[in-house]
Structure formats: C-alpha cells, structure tokens
Design goal:
Length: 188
C-alpha cells in the first residue's frame, strides 16, 4: 500500500475518533484511536519488509524474495530507512545466484543508510566479496577494512578472516603470467 494512503487512512480514523469522543461514544472512540495506530505503525515499518525479515530469520530466502517482490514501487511505498533495508535484503537474497546484482543492491543500501552497525558490516563484506570475484584486490581490501571497523560485536570476525586469507592468495592482475614460464621470443 502506498505510504500516503496509510497516512490518509490514519488521519481519517483520528478524525472519526475525535467525532466519536465529541458525540459521547468513548468506548468506540478509544477503539478507533487504537485502529488508527495500525496504519501509522505500517507507515514506518512496511508489512512486506517485516514479513521478509521473518522469512530471512528462518533462512528461507525464496519466500523472503517473494515478499520483497510484492513491493512494486519502492519509492512510493517505503520511507528512506526502509529503502536501505529493501535493497539490503534484495542484495542478500540475490547474492547466491547473481553477485553483480547483489553488489548493486548493497551499494544502494549503504547510500540510503542502515540502522545497525552489523548490517553495515554485512553489506561491506558482500561488497568485498563482489570486488574479489571481479579481481579488484585493492577495493576488496578497503571494503574488508571498513567491515572490520563496523563489526563492533565481532559477529562476522570468522567471515572476515577467511576473506582476508582468500585475498592473500589472490593474484594481483588478471593477465598475470607464470614467472617460471620461459619467455617466448619472436620465432619460438
């Protein structure tokens, strides 16, 4: 549902509650006021994002992606913070099959902003993995260093260490030749 429709519905319910209080129906006025809290809550916490978080917590990425796909126009349906988490969760669900798309979503998530430091660390760790897969060692090292700074609770220390080990074994250039191979001359 569009975020403007949610606010409009909440305003109408509050006006109706005010009329019920004015009319003397205090019980119904309280009930309608409590009902007005639902669209206000859903304005700040989108229902599809909440359901996608629930599925991700259960490690069911396919269903999480299904709930995220129900958000047809994120700019109209979500507030700024929710946009960050929308792209963050899309990046996580996409990471298994499409690393490039995942990297794009993680960059957008960092641009919009994520509330928790461990979420920012996870996004930067995914960006480091994307840079490593494309052979950009310096960029991957920079993202890993930033992920280390964000990981204040040491939740991803093991992942960061394994990625640093992989980074050490990574060749610097794409066309790096074997130094033990003899040089080829003009005729041989």
């Amino acid at each position: 549902m569009n975020k403007n429709i949610k606010i409009s519905l909440a305003v109408l319910l509050i006006i109706a509650a005010g009329y019920l209080f004015y009319d003397g129906s205090y019980g119904w006025g309280i009930i309608v006021t409590l009902l007005a809290a639902i669209p206000i809550l859903l304005y700040f916490r989108n229902e599809y994002i909440l359901l996608a978080f629930w599925e991700m917590r259960k490690q069911n990425l396919a269903k999480a992606q299904m709930w995220l796909s129900k958000i047809t126009s994120p700019e109209k349906q979500l507030v700024r913070k929710q946009m960050g988490y929308y792209h963050f969760m899309n990046g996580i669900t996409m990471g298994q099959e499409n690393l490039t798309g995942s990297v794009n979503h993680m960059k957008k998530a960092l641009d919009y902003g994520l509330s928790f430091a461990h979420d920012r660390a996870m996004a930067k760790l995914n960006l480091a993995a994307g840079a490593m897969s494309q052979g950009r060692k310096n960029e991957a090292k920079r993202w890993l260093d930033e992920a280390k700074k964000e990981d204040k609770q040491n939740m991803m220390t093991e992942h960061i260490k394994t990625m640093e080990e992989q980074l050490k074994r990574m060749n610097v250039g794409r066309n790096m030749q074997n130094p033990n191979m003899r040089r080829r001359g003009k005729f041989f």
